[in-house]
């Protein structure tokens, strides 16, 4: 049985394949409200990002696609160890679309003892963005826990640089 791949999936694959690796330059966000710190002293920051976007003027649907990668740092200044779960972080994209990371670097979870720091890369594949320079929000949701309970860490608002 032959599998039919939807047109938008083919376009996304072409966009991501054609973006040269040299164009994927990590930069600090153009603007950010971070870092954000929990009451217990755990800090989350957006260190760097790369947002590659391609427009296809010949596309009759007039959609464009963006590949956003964000390097996140978690620092534990709490008295006890915390656990970070990269896959639980969420991006609130322009238009209030909530996105889960499609990939992340490192293990599924990272345990941090007091005064330890880790960083990981989150990758989001949003659709229909006109520009990568629109304001976005990174939410830790239940992405960092202390004693099994999610920490309340504020939202980090940022604007990415467009490649």
Q: Would you tell me which CATH topology applies?
A: Immunoglobulin-like
- Mean pLDDT equals 79
Q: What does the overall shape look like?
A: elongated
What quaternary form is this? Answer: single chain
Number of strands: 14
CATH level-two architecture: Sandwich
How large a portion of the residues is in β-strands, by DSSP E?
A: 35-45%
Give the domain tally. 1
The order of strands across the largest sheet is 1-14-11-6-7
Name the structural class. Answer: mainly beta
Measured as a percent range, the helix fraction is under 10%
Radius of gyration over C-alpha positions, nearest whole angstrom: 17 Å
Q: Please give the count of helices.
A: 1
- The low-confidence runs, each spanning 5 or more residues with pLDDT under 50, are 1-22, 57-62
Give the distance, in angstroms, between the N- and C-terminal Cα atoms.
39 Å
CATH first level: Mainly Beta
Largest sheet: 5 strands, antiparallel
* Secondary-structure element order, N to C: HEEEEEEEEEEEEEE
Task: Write up this protein.
The chain is mainly beta. The protein has one domain (7-159): Sandwich (Immunoglobulin-like), CATH 2.60.40. The protein has one helix at residues 7-18, and strands at 31-32, 36-37, 42-55, 64-76, 82-84, 90-93, 97-99, 103-104, 110-112, 117-124, 135-139, 144-146, 149-150, 156-159. The model is unreliable at 1-22 and 57-62 (pLDDT under 50).
């Amino acid at each position: 049985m032959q599998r039919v791949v939807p047109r938008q999936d083919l376009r996304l694959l072409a966009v991501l394949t054609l973006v040269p690796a040299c164009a994927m330059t990590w930069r600090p966000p153009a603007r950010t409200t971070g870092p954000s710190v929990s009451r217990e002293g755990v800090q989350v920051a957006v260190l760097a990002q790369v947002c590659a976007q391609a427009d296809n003027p010949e596309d009759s649907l007039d959609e464009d696609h963006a590949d956003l990668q964000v390097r996140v740092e978690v620092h534990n200044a709490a008295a006890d160890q915390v656990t970070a779960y990269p896959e639980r972080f969420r991006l609130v994209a322009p238009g209030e679309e909530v996105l889960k990371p499609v990939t992340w670097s490192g293990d599924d979870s990272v345990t941090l003892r007091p005064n330890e720091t880790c960083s990981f890369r989150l990758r989001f594949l949003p659709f229909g963005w006109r520009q990568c320079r629109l304001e976005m929000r990174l939410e830790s949701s239940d992405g960092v826990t202390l004693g099994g309970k999610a920490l309340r860490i504020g939202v980090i608002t940022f604007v990415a640089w467009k490649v």
